[in-house]
Batch of 2 targets.
Target 1
Amino acid sequence: MGLWLGAASVRAAGLEQWDFNGSLASASGGTALMSGASLPAVSPQGTWTTSSIGGVAAAVASFGRGTHFRATHALGGNGGGTRLNQYTLIVDLNTPSRPSGWAALLQSNSANTDDGDWFIDPSGRIGISGVYGGRVPDGMWARLALVVDCVGGTYRSYINGTPAQQLGGLTVDGRFSLGPTFLLFADNNQENAPGLVNSVQLRDQALSDSEILALGGPTAAGIPSTSIPPRNPLFGQSLQTNGGFEELFAGWTTAAGRPAVRLTGVAKGNSHGGSRFLHGGVNRPGDMVLRQVIPLDGFSTNELQGAVLESEAWLRNWYGAGVFDDQVFYRVAFVDAAEREISSVRCMVASDRVWLQRSLTAVLPPGTRRLHLEVVGRHRRDADNDSMADDLNVRLRVAPGAVPPPVLTKKPMLQGVRTDAMTLIWETSHNLAEPLVEWGVGDVSERTWTRVETLQIDSSHFVHRAVITGLDAETEYVYRVRNGATVSGSYRFRTAPRPETPFVTAWWGDNHSGTGILRTHVANILRHAPDMICVAGDMVDSGNSLSEWNDYWFKPLEHLDAAQTTPVIFARGNHDGEHALSYAYSALPGNESWYAFDFGNSRFIFLDSEADGTTSPEQLNWLRAELARPETQRAAFRVVCFHKPPWSQFWNGGGHTQEPFVINEWVPLFRSQGVDLVICGHEHAYTRGTTNGVVYVVSGGGGGALDTQRVAFWPHVKVEYSQYHFDIMSVNGRRMTWETYDSGNRLLDEFTLVSRQAEVRIERQSQGGYHLRIEGRPGHRYRVEEASSLQAGVLTWAPLGEVTTSAVPAFWPVTVGAEVRVLRVVPLP
Amino acid sequence: MRTPFGNGLFMNLLRMPLGLLGLFAVLVLGTAAATAHGPFHERIQALTLELQSKPEDVSLLARRCDIERAHGLWPEAMADLVQLEKLAPADPTNGLRRGVILLGRGQAVEAVPHLRKWVEKHPDGTDERLALAQACMGAKQWTNAIQEFSTVLASSAEARAQVLLDRAQCQQQAGDSATNILKGLDEGIARIGPIPQLVRHAAEVELLRGAVEAAVARIGVLAERSERKERWLFEQGELFRRGGRLEDAQRCYSNAIVVLESLPPKFQRSLLSVELRRELEARLVSGGVR
């Protein structure tokens, strides 16, 4: 056995080093290594030798398989634990062979009684726990680095300065933390290898990518021990206070609602950690927003340049996954010195009754001087706002240096229906590049929109949402999205039409996995130049499948840049449903579950048929109020869309003929409040019929397997097809045309609706005198009223009589004299 | 309001362009779980798992067979059916299943006897009779097909246009008179309303028997009801042209252009409108002669 002896060198702060220059002595003034053996060796084996590294001869140690080195450091503990939780281990190593296939590099257990903690695997990759990457060249010198951050929960390996592998889920004082003694090249079950080692360094910091890169590759002189410029100690430290609500609301302010801090195990389940957690409020309906302002005064502007936010929180609701419930998420807003929000990052809603961890990663946009940490609870059912949160943690990490540009994984999809704004959503593979929109009237270089909210799905799916405001109605704009060096193509969109402008909307429902059919529909639909595309739900089979949202929804709508040039909105179906992903991939109006908007001269109302009146009386109350609005009543047309139709004619497997709550709760409102058209999906067929003055269309032929089994003959249904189809709705003033086409663009059905709103003019009669000329919907009754008094700004109307219009206008004689008369014609239910 | 409900068997009619027969038959019995909805692969998997411990459970096998059938998994459905027939040889429903599976596989000729046997014993089953009609159509047994379609239409409120169109197609193949074919289509129009597919087909039949005016008049009904008259004017022009009435065709094309130009700019800008205009102008330039 050879002995390793060598001279010590001056110890740099926070660093231990061994350079194997003919000795096992520390090169940093610390404790020498001790050699040892584990099977298959019974005693340490090795020699001092020289080896060429980068063309220069280096004094190195050659050690046999099973030989290990016991290292003792004096770096103490950090990261809030008793052990070394944030450190970097760097090894200049050459492994000519790996007899077992493996080469153990680090064993944190100084007794070597369990598996090693850092390996080269049989494929030459580096890592641990099944997560391996990179390639350590066989028989060649390499500088291997391991950066462990148990506070941030990350374990990262590097080969010659290049990131090779990353693992998460580390805990403070857990497996990968180091005690005062650890082993190099040891493993408890012979997954070790012989090798040559030139230099080993341990630092009590988790170095950044750029710092590792700066250390470079292996050299004969060993690992540089120059101090990394002292880093602001706030990096890597928790910046929030009272993230676990153990101190009730200390550090937090309530921006909306009346949340409460609850004790574990009392009424609303257990906390995630500690004894308390945040709850949206028992018997306190309404949304909740809780905010904590985190000043970044301890960081210089330079330090914040390109710094990365890392954050976690634990969230839950009351009902299980996929069930209609309140929604909770948290967000971090980046705020400038003038208290303006620059942009933000948020997580998916946590739609389950178990605690779910949600993480956030984002690069700070330029100008950030404070963070707003917010917990948002959207109240959607029953008396309680069951939005719950616990253990929020916010940290900053040093700017990572050069980062490969993100991949644009989903092209921007338009989801705006306003005359003065447009909503875009797009997705990238990481969030370490600032997202923004470049846009203009003539050129994308005219303006930049930086206020983007990024929603993190996981570590490789980031959905960016921008709402560009201040636009003009019916105006075409050109745009593209950018994330650092990654830029999308340029596309054009047009804002929503004015009330007097004709418009076209396209419809389908239930495309499911029928991507071929959907692409065909998209191509056919675009020939009709729609201003908006509306989908009656069931865009996927499984709303909690990432791949389905990509393959069944986003990708087909990228065909011919359909969704990049035409806004797409939808009602939620039972398949897309109440999954977190369903809400991650949408930026719909209102609460994104039920909402309404004006488009042209019509009012569009979208409902969530996953939430009946018992589950969510809020939706029913909202619908009553919405339909009763004078503006809704004055619209030329009231169009309602939701997924599950009141009546079904076809249903493979039998049994499903109606949706009782829709019939009992919604249909009477449609009748009494003059809804013109109801469009549904769910049934994979086309049916059309009119009852009580309301036209009901089922448009479920978007691509899902067709329903062909007849289960009913509802008498009001007049037209039926068991065929794939889409629909085109054109509105020109008081007339709406509905056309249904099959996948060959052949017309299957067509009907026209005339607006209930009468067109009224005063005309002089040929024989003298005047009349009101009333053009209304044929067969509809109207009441002529006169304003009888005006009190406190409110007119009182007195009925004069009724008329029924037909295909020809009706007339109501009026006398015109000196005094002013105010008349109106009101459609009756 | 309660309504009469369909029976267990149903028919999936994939409407193909005129001249092609695309048949697809699906059978469902009772409350079987066969469905176009939900994760059917998982259901099949779950049943397969159960069948591993109960391989001779007829009800499990039947459910799996029906789900496979409903989703066009013909080899799997037939394999299950063969097993069902071994385990329950006296079950007459298997005959119905076999008929429908054969029809779905495009073996209409083989399907007919199985379906006919069932329908003869259960004459009230509309869906089964529709399957038989489709099988007869696929087997080119035109007269039988016509009879079965007519029985379905007479005994139920069936309102799918494709049923009426399939009957008309069979009538044409059987050499039935245009009068009879039109009578059938007009019955359908009276039942459902003048929906485009039926009216267009009727117009074709009129044209084929030389009744150009009648053909054009039928399209006129659609034009009268439609906001977008330009396409119907074009179709009328085409009917006139094919009927040798070139001047009348030209008039229709010109009128169509006038209508197109009166549309709001928004509607004029669509690709369909642009293409239609191009087509109309080409017709006018060529004098309507192709």
Target 2
Amino acid sequence: MERALIDFHTHPLLVQEMVAGNDELLHAQKKVFDIQNRLQPLETFHLELDVSGLQRAVVLPLDARTAKGSQIFSNEQIAELCRLSDRFVGFASVDPHRPDAAEQLERDVTRLGLRGLKLSPSLQEFAANDRDKAYPVYEAAQSLRIPLLIHAGMTWAPRSKSANPMDLEDVAFDFPDLKIVIAHFGWPWVQETAMLCLKYDNVFADTSCLYHDAPWEFMRHVFTERLPLTLLERSLRHKVVFGSDYPRVEIKNMVRAVKELGLSDQAQEMIFSKNARHLLGEAEATYK
Amino acid sequence: MIIRTLTLTVQSRREQELIDVTPEIERVIAESGVQEGLVNILTMHTSSGIIVTEGLPCLEEDVVTHLSRLCPSEGDYLHRRYLKIDGRIGFNADAHLKSVLGGISATFPITAGKMLKGGRQTIYFAEYDGPLSREYVVQVLGE
């Protein structure tokens, strides 16, 4: 199977084979992430990718032991999920409040074969530019040459702080070899996100933003009203990856929303495939 | 009086499709032992339905196509807002409206231990927002 088209932002919160009977994951699904949908067999995730025309999905954990008292998938559970399906690309997460966070990241990425780092300053309750807690983790990710997917902007999760992507400017400057992906395009700070993507070679963003209206309405609002579509087509086509935030929204609906923007075939190929593969170390950058 | 209630699972594989569940209903009736009575079939989801029509692929496609014409996904729906009950935006109003139009249940008599239905009547689980693992209830009542 051609494995080129990738969803760079999914949470395996509803995968029955992993979550059913696991009280911590059920708690995380309902109380930390506030997702109330019923569990689905792994096959549904595969079918969701199929009807969306995608082959693979990045599956994300979140280590919020200090802030929320739970891990929303441990790194071991993400690795186990990836063993159930070769269509998943597993990322790691660590708790920046813990003194051994950097060491844990190095250990887990190496032994479990995880391919990126997920952090959420709002849910994990740390400042993205905290030099004491966050910088050692960034240093480790940079050394491991794995991308950082970091939550920015509003989150629906209860008791979460807003996360302004401008906090990431220090990080982008101080870690020039760390590829940083701003999740949710930083909404509502989409102009700030665009600025960071324009300014820093190592800053990217994903499309997983949906906070009102239908996905295609929201996407049109962000990329044709808040920002000109030409910005995405001409200047950021190599800096944006497709992400859905599934199961907060179905992958099929976010794919449709991005496709209906009216981008060129070349720009779509970069957003749905080439840029993600570049971030994952599978392909060279094709646009300088 | 026998009352047998079963929750069955069906995996839809497409965004919208009709899935023939007639054999499953007949199996439940046979296993219930009811000779004279009724069977009720009810979907448990508001973005799906239970439909009875002639079992032809062309009609299966027509049902989906024309419900979509009546309830287009790009319609202007108030439902497109954050729903606390789900923790997400509701943007499948079209699926809910198709469920309203197509119906959520069907009832058939049972006589001589078999479902009494027209020779061309086929019972479908109607998926309007798939692919998903879905549940529907079959309840057999009688003697």
